[in-house]
Amino acid sequence: MASGRLPAVKTIPRLPTEERAAILDQLFEPCVPLHTLSVSLLREKTFDSYDDLISSIGLQLTELAESPSTSDKEWLESILAAHPRLGQSKIESTQSRAEQAQLGTGDDPSAQSLSRLNELYEQTFPGLRYVVFVNGRDRAAIINDIESRIERRDAVAERNAAIKVCPSWLSQTIGN
Question: For the stretch 162-175, what's the b/e string if a residue is b when 16 or more beta carbons lie within 10 angstroms of its beta carbon?
Answer without folding.
Answer: bbebbeebbeeeee
